[in-house]
Write a structure and sequence with these properties.
The chain is an alpha+beta fold. The protein has two helices and two strands. Helix 1 runs antiparallel to helix 2. The N and C termini lie far apart (35 Å).
C-alpha cells in the first residue's frame, strides 16, 4: 500500500491511526496520519512511496492486550 492510499483510507474512515500487520496478519505497529503527512512532505517523497519503504520511521509498536 502506498502512503497516498493509506492517507486516503484513513481520511475516508475518519481515523487518525492505521494498524500495521505482517503477512500472517499479526500486528506489527501503527502509524498516524500526522506521521505519514511528515513523510509526504519530505523532499524525497513521490506518490509511489510504499508504507514498507518508510517503516524505519517513528512507528509505534502494537499495544499489548491486557488480560482482565
Amino acid at each position: 500500500m502506498t502512503v497516498e492510499v493509506a492517507l486516503s483510507v484513513m481520511a475516508g474512515a475518519k481515523v487518525e491511526h492505521l494498524l500495521l500487520c505482517d503477512g500472517d496478519d499479526e500486528r506489527t505497529g501503527s502509524v498516524s496520519r500526522a506521521e505519514l503527512a511528515v513523510h509526504r512532505g519530505s523532499s524525497g517523497y513521490t506518490d509511489r512511496v510504499r508504507l514498507r519503504d518508510v517503516l524505519g520511521g517513528p512507528f509505534r509498536p502494537p499495544v499489548a492486550a491486557v488480560a482482565g
